[in-house]
Design a protein that fits this description.
Strand content: 15-25%
Distance between the termini: 110 Å
Radius of gyration: 35 Å
Strand order of the largest sheet: 1-6-5-4-7-3-2-8-9
Helix content: 25-40%
Structural class: alpha+beta
Bound molecules: adenosine-5'-diphosphate
CATH class of the largest domain: Alpha Beta
Shape: elongated
Length: 629
């Protein structure tokens, strides 16, 4: 037996390890299983080049809990270590790695998310243990096994062991304050979180399995039950396989494996696979995405060589793609850096651009292959695409080919197709093409109807980022403007040269205006008298496009006039001088009756916008009853 002192400059590194990694204690298991996996893969490699014989197939990694001794065991059948190798790899290499890590990160412990992602390796075992033992036997012939032990001080012991089988057993004597790691359920959930897709089978206990009955079994035959190893991982997850070998079903089965609580199938998937200039594999899924963006983020899982790292891929994939689901596996993503550094990192930029391009290409090919199907899916995917167009210029350019603009009558166009269709009728006097849209067919129903009467086409743009997106589309297309159907009177939505002839003279208009202004609340409505050619209403409420859009943009974040924050809602009250009832108002001499007509006309306008509520609605109903009596 020999003993010695681990060569470290810090007298006692262990309290430091505990302190700095406090929030992420649980990663020790991932680290130790990674080492066991590496040792097994190395053995397979040696065997494949003829360096070793004997059983290298079916190597398992076994995880055991001994509740009495309060120990946790990680046992592999990999290459093992000689006594000298333990000295070298554990006392020197592993330790210097740990020390270097602490040197680097003790000042930036605040960036805790990253620290947890950093592979601290073997020494992370001390985060949860008061003592750690290694019993290991190398694959090399006639070399005795070694037994190393260390109690958390820089002192260790190293002696011979009588272990007969190849491989390494790590024994953790779990600390009092970490006793949760002696619970089956805890270990089980950790294995499920970090090791679910690692390449070497991991056994955790056993389970009972029911054998299938033979085909011609008698009716009362009982199925036979057997005890089998409980293997916790799928060693060949779909993303590690070649896309040409996978069927749709394989992709949807893998989706269920990733998200067992998810009952809905994804709409489609994108298989990522590059090895130059960086290594990256993965599968992204488009789930059904509704308008509530924030609830749906952070479902993509990041792996490095099949080891789970995190489900926060911020900075690695562009933000709009965090709405997708699936996995990304890349050894080339540096995790030992802060998020802000990550975003500036050249390799990560390339990865992010690659993913964006793949997603755009896939969407484009889906669109080309089966446009009907794409149109059917549009409502469930549009938020991602619109979000992407808004935030990534490269994506914006590509999306021009497949991003769709549905009309209120459910016909789908690309922007170019739509422009082509409407270019004559929707051109205003300055040669600008005006695209009319609605954000809500029910609320803006009467406006849509008037516009249709004029022969106009109206788009239905109802996702939350639309105000931002149309702003961008206008910047990129000089001769294009988006105008919501309720933002002006029908005559002014698309300003043409010819004016509708008014039934009222200028004199009559001048008389009418103050009559109305006297009665309606001035702080809310600006009165404007106009001759409308198509409207069933005597009064129409509109909200100027610019103001409303700025307000909306501000409400869902991003730029937009900061000073508009507390602006009250202002409407233009368009009085249709060609409507019979307006003529009636002017003719009516009795003040009481006239006022009642004005109130009634205003309330009808509000009702058509769904703005009439509470006491005002009660009054309106009462007045209506009086009028028909
Ligand atoms: P890393 O794995 O990053 O190299 P570690 O601190 O985890 O650092 O381990 C240091 C070294 O100890 C490994 O590189 C390996 O040579 C050796 N080692 C650790 N665990 C095992 C194991 N289960 N079997 C064989 N060798 C191991």
């Amino acid at each position: 037996m020999s003993s010695g002192k681990i060569n470290v400059s810090v007298e006692n590194i262990f309290p430091l390890i505990k302190k700095f990694l406090y929030s992420d204690h649980e990663i020790f298991l991932r680290e130790l299983i990674s080492n066991a996996t590496d040792a097994t893969i190395k053995l397979n490699h040696l065997s494949s080049i003829g360096e070793t014989k004997g059983n290298v197939e079916d190597c398992l990694i076994d995880i055991k809990i001994d509740k009495n001794k309060k120990t946790l065991h990680i046992i592999d059948e990999g290459i093992g270590m000689t006594s000298d190798e333990v000295k070298k790899y554990i006392n020197e290499v592993a330790f210097s790695g740990a020390e270097e890590f602490l040197e680097k990160y003790k000042d930036s412990a605040s960036d805790a998310g990253i620290i947890g992602h950093f592979g601290l390796g073997f020494y992370s075992a001390f985060m949860v243990s008061k003592k750690v033992e290694i019993i290991t036997k190398t694959y090399k012939k006639n070399v005795p096994a070694a037994h190393w032990a260390c109690d958390g001080s820089p002192n260790y012991t190293l002696k011979k062991s009588d272990k007969k089988t190849r491989g390494t057993e790590i024994i953790l004597h779990i600390d009092k304050d970490s006793k949760e790691f002696l619970e089956d359920s805890k270990i089980s959930s950790l294995l499920n979180k970090y090791n679910k897709f690692m390449p070497i089978p991991i056994k955790f206990g056993t389970k009972e399995e029911t054998l299938p009955l033979p085909k011609n079994a008698p009716k009362d035959a009982k199925a036979e039950k057997v005890i089998v190893d409980n293997i916790v991982n799928n060693t060949k997850p779909a993303w590690t396989q070649s896309p040409s070998k996978l069927k749709d079903e394989d992709y949807s089965n893998f989706y269920k494996e990733l998200y067992p609580m998810q009952f809905e199938d994804p709409l489609f998937n994108i298989h990522l696979n590059v090895d130059y200039p960086f290594n990256l594999t993965g599968i992204l899924y488009f789930p059904r995405i509704n308008n509530d963006i924030n609830l749906q983020k952070d479902k993509i899982q990041l792996y490095q060589n099949q080891v789970f790292v995190t489900d926060n891929v911020e900075g690695i994939v562009p933000e709009f793609l965090t709405l997708l689901r699936g996995v990304i596996d890349s050894p080339d993503i540096p995790l030992n850096v802060s998020r802000s550094y990550l975003q500036a990192d050249g390799a990560v930029k390339k990865i992010s651009n690659y993913i964006t391009r793949k997603v755009a290409d896939k969407l484009n090919s889906l669109f080309k292959k089966n446009r009907n199907n794409f149109e059917e899916k549009w409502n469930d995917i549009k938020v991602v695409i619109e979000y992407g167009m808004l935030s990534e210029d490269k994506f914006f350019e590509k999306a021009g080919n497949f991003s769709l603009y549905p009309t209120v009558d459910n016909k789908y166009f690309t922007l170019n197709e739509f422009k082509e269709k409407i270019k004559d009728l929707h051109k205003d006097k300055d040669d600008k093409i005006i695209i009319l849209y609605s954000s809500n067919v029910d609320e803006q129903h009467s406006y849509i109807e008037s516009a249709k009467e004029k022969g106009y086409e109206i788009l239905l743009l109802d996702s939350p980022i639309v105000p931002h997106l149309i702003q961008k589309l206008e910047t990129k297309n000089e001769k294009l403007s988006f105008v919501r159907v309720d933002s002006d009177s029908i005559e002014n939505l698309i300003k043409k040269d010819e004016a509708t002839v008014s039934k009222l003279s200028d004199e009559e208009k001048d008389k009418l205006k103050p009559l109305i202004e006297k009665i309606i609340p001035k702080e809310k409505y600006t009165v404007q008298i106009e001759a409308l050619s198509s409207s069933q209403l005597p009064f129409v409420l509109t909200q100027p496009e610019f103001m409303r859009r700025m307000k909306e943009m501000q409400q869902n974040g991003g730029s937009g006039g900061g000073m508009l924050g507390n602006f009250p809602e202002m409407f233009t009250l368009v009085v249709n001088s060609n409507h019979n009832l307006v003529g009636e108002i002017l003719k009516t001499k009795a003040k009481k009756k006239r006022d009642r007509l004005i109130h009634q006309a205003l309330d009808l306008a509000r009702l058509s916008q769904n703005l009439l509520k509470g006491e005002e609605l009660t009054k309106f109903i009462q007045r209506s009853v009086d009028l028909i009596k």
